[in-house]
Amino acid sequence: DEQVLIIREKLAELYESEEEWSRAAQMLSGIDLDSGIRMLDEAYKLSKCVQIARLYLEDDDAVNAEAFINKASFLVSNSQHEVLNLQYKVCYARILDLKRKFLEAALRYYAISQIEKRQIGDELIDEEALEQALTAAVTCTILAAAGPQRSRVLATLYKDERCSKLKIYPILQKVYLERILRKPEIDAFAEELRAHQKALLPDNFTVLDRAMIEHNLLSASKLYTNISFEELGALLGIAPLKAEKIASRMIYEDRMRGSIDQVEAFIHFEDDTEELQQWDQQASLLNL
Amino acid sequence: MDIEQKQADLIDYFVKQAHNHKEESLPNVIVEATSNSSLFAFSEILAVPNITQLRGTKYSVFVDVLQLFAHGTWSDYKKNVERLPPMVPDQIRKLKQLSVLTFAETNKVLPYDKLMQELDVSNVRELEDFLINECMYSGIVRGKLDQLRRCFEVQFAAGRDLRPEQLENMIRTLESWSTSSDNLLVSIQDKIKWADTKSEMNKKHQKDVEDRMEAAKKSS
Amino acid sequence: ENSLLRQVSSLLRRLPVIESEKFQDDFL
Q1: A102 beta partners
Q2: Which ipTM did the prediction report?
Q3: Residue stretches of chain B with pLDDT short of 50
Q4: Do A278 and C27 touch (CB under 8 A)?
Q5: Torsion angle of alpha carbons A177, A182, A185, A186, nearest 10°?
Q6: Which of B108, B132, B150 to mutate to test the interface with A (most CBs of A within 10 A)?
Q7: Degrees to nearest 5, angle at CA B171 with B169 and B176
Q8: What is the pLDDT of residue C19?
Q9: Count of other CB atoms within 10 angstroms of residue A93
Q10: Which chains reach chain A with 3 or more Cβ–Cβ distances below 8 angstroms?
């Protein structure tokens, strides 16, 4: 077993040097980490699981990476190895990102970006890496489903001074302020995205399209009391019926308040606050 | 009030510019001020002596431009287009933004048709884009677009420079508001007093009834 | 002070803050 382990590790090294990531991962995953015959220490097991997950992630293979990160999650809580723990966190965030659980990924990327130590073990944490993590957090938040949860994360990011220095800041600002995003801005944002973030979905929209359409729909709900399907479609750059469908799903999921009049082909954006409550909300006028 | 904070520095800057420039370069200062995307107030600049002294000179027409931006609308410009210097796109946009503020002074509900006519916009999409991008997103106006009723409901509009004759109306509105508030407070006080009195009377009546019941029980 | 006048003008334009039958009923 000892010899097989050494051979496998050496072969994996070779595959890695040739950038054959998945093959390297497969080579290492053949090592029996759970065998009762040999006692392998927890740190070694953790390092192998994380290493395999990282290799699979190089090929954007979230499924296999997740399998090994899940194994690692049983070991990481007892681990004192700071470098491994950090690598585990980064893998986890990337897996969530690949699986399009964008809000969760954003929160994990954000936590990574807030690391204060500049040296963990032998690894130096440079500012660029932290900036990348922060940018990834912003990107994932923007791609996440529009709604109250996303709004909270957006607020956190927007108020973080570090974000104002990022290249992605202008779009973050617009998304946070719930402003309509125009095509040139969306195209510029798209250039910074990875393949899975622009992947085609069953409804023939890409991940990016859907995020942008939902955001713009929510922005429209702040500007309009009501809008026709046709105008909404024109605003969102999609067919009127698709606009209606997306709006109805968002209303159904309670991510947007409103109602749809299919007879008149209008969407009414509702603020169903009671009259007296609305009047009370104007109390600030007296202060002014 | 955000608008005032945002433009306070700009006003200071252009007032200083107006103080420090000679007559020949003041038209450029005026064009720069009226083209600036964040400046919507011009009274302070108009009040600078260097500017008022342009009247009667060959640059007098630029004072008219400044006056137009302080109090006028896009329609006013069109009526005087031969007399006034041609405007750059930034000035045209600014004047149209200011026109919306003027319309909002007298009406809270602005019909699309009137806006399209006044702003020389040919279709609803173009009008709404203008109201969204140039008015709402620039923070000078807050409101809701109503496509069914074809109107723009204004909730907030930044204040334009005041004309002297507007002051009296403002004072009257403030007095009326203050009087209504006072009357309402008096009315509420009266209602409280009435409620208290009623409550006392009810308690007394309750006690009378109970006393009579007691007396009746004893005598029987 | 021009700035103050503009602010007051803007403030007054917001009145009345609500105008609807439903509000009148609730208010009364």
Answers
A1: none
A2: 0.84
A3: none
A4: no
A5: 100
A6: B132
A7: 95
A8: 79
A9: 23
A10: B, C
Out of C3, C11, C14, the one facing B8 most closely (by C-beta) is: C3
List beta partners, residue A260: A267
Contact residues on chain C for A279, CB-CB shorter than 8 A:
17-18, 23, 27
A76: which 2 tokens? 């990481």
Q: What residue ranges in chain A does DSSP mark as E strands?
A: 119-120, 123-124, 224-228, 258-261, 266-269
Interchain pair B146, A223: CB under 8 A: no
Check if the beta carbon of residue A25 is closer than 8 Å to that of residue A91. Answer: no
Q: Which of residues 219-258 of A touch B (CB under 8 A)?
A: 223-228, 231, 234
The DSSP bridge pattern shows strands B141-146 and A224-228 to be parallel
Nearest to A91 by CA among A77, A107, A102, A105: A105
Give the tens place of pLDDT for each residue, A122-178: 777 888 889 999 999 999 999 998 878 899 999 999 999 999 999 999 999 999 999
CA distance C4 to chain A (A): 11
Chain C, nearest residue to B187 by Cα: C28
Q: Which of B11, B157, B162 sits opposite C13 (nearest CB)?
A: B157
B145 touches chain A (CB under 8 A): yes
Give residue A272's pLDDT band: very low, low, confident or very high (50, 70, 90).
Answer: low
> pTM of the predicted model, to two decimals?
0.83
Q: Which chains pack against C, by 3+ Cβ pairs within 8 A?
A: A, B
pLDDT number for residue B75? 96
Among partner residues B4, B44, B167, which is closest to C7 by beta-carbon distance? B4
Q: How far apart, in Å, do the first and last CA atoms of chain B sit?
A: 77
Q: Give SS3 for B143.
A: strand
What is residue A36's DSSP assignment? S
Q: Where are the beta strands (DSSP E) in chain B?
A: 109-111, 141-146, 151-157
In eight-state DSSP terms, residue A264 is T
